[in-house]
Amino acid sequence: MSIIEANLLSDTVTRPTPEMLEAMMSARVGDDVFGEDPTINALQEKAAKMFGHEAALFCPSGTMTNQIALQIHLQPLEEVICEENAHIYQFETGGYAHNARCSISLVKGVYGKMNSEQVLAAIKPVFDWLPKTSLVSIENSCNKGGGTYYTLEEARSIQGICQMKNLSYHLDGARLFNVLVETGDEAIRWGTTFDTLSICLSKGLGAPVGSLLIGSNEKITQARRFRKVMGGRLGSCHGQSCGPFCDPPRPH
Ligand SMILES: Cc1ncc(COP(=O)(O)O)c(C=O)c1O
User: Fold this and answer.
1) Core-most of 13, 85, 92, 197, by most CB within 10 Å?
2) How far is the CA of 118 from the centre of ligand 1 (A)?
3) Domain assignments of the chain as residue spans, ordered by start
């Protein structure tokens, strides 16, 4: 690509390569509503395996995978801790309050990164007057932090706090692949540090859309229901053919 063709607006404007377009044209497709799209199934299995988890769920966007993660980890009256520049706080339209009906505790970090001492200090004591801290979410790399990244050691130090305090741990890994390229870390070592991870295929990787939420079978089963209610399920209900739940048309 020449410098004149380069579009530096965002890494989200990267385009599919000819090989990717060819793969799209020849992809085997099916109805994901019934879990019968072989290409989506293969993608989900590949992502889960790559990050050392049991399951993954393909969604249209990284906002949706983050919002689903908040809903599976949090109940109303509970709270997520994140850095004040986090995408889930800054750029998801306040969805944490709308979708998960939770509150948010913001930590002032350095260039988008918080450390384990700050996370520990942000955890609220159990007290009826206060929201219950249930989740910690970090972003890697940190978009509004200017492209900074957590090392695995830093992320695992926060994981230690989550384990000690019985909190869930989510990674907004919209650009985790940049971190993997920069550090040479194995994906599986990052995957097993978190209860759930969101990764995006549309940022710097050339796919036009698409993100995956990765986690345990239990969490991804829950996630599937939240994707459905958010309208993100990929397929359709044809009335006469959606399995045991739709009665066949009856004569009047
Ligand atoms: C860190 C981070 N998380 C999540 C998202 C949301 O991704 P999407 O635009 O696919 O909803 C973005 C988008 O740029 C992002 O930068």
Assistant:
1) 197
2) 24
3) 36-233
Question: What's the chain's average pLDDT?
Answer: 92
Q: In terms of DSSP H, where are the helices of the chain? A: 18-25, 38-50, 62-73, 87-90, 95-99, 116-122, 152-165, 176-183, 187-191, 217-229
170 lines ligand 1 (CB under 6 A): no
Question: Residue 228 corresponds to which tokens in the numbers above?
Answer: 């459905």
C-alpha 87 to ligand 1 mean position (Å): 7
Q: In a mutational test of the pocket of ligand 1, which residue from 11, 13, 58, 63 has the highest number of ligand atoms less than 8 Å from its CB?
A: 63
Ligand 1 within 6 A of 202 CB? yes
Whether omega before 141 lies within 30 degrees of 0, making that bond cis, reads yes
Q: Is the CB of 141 under 6 A from ligand 1?
A: no
- pLDDT tens, position by position, 11-62: 888 889 999 999 999 999 999 888 899 999 999 999 999 999 999 999 999 9
The pLDDT-based confidence of 8 (bands split at 50, 70, 90) is confident
Class assignment of domain 36-233? Answer: alpha beta
Give the pTM: 0.92
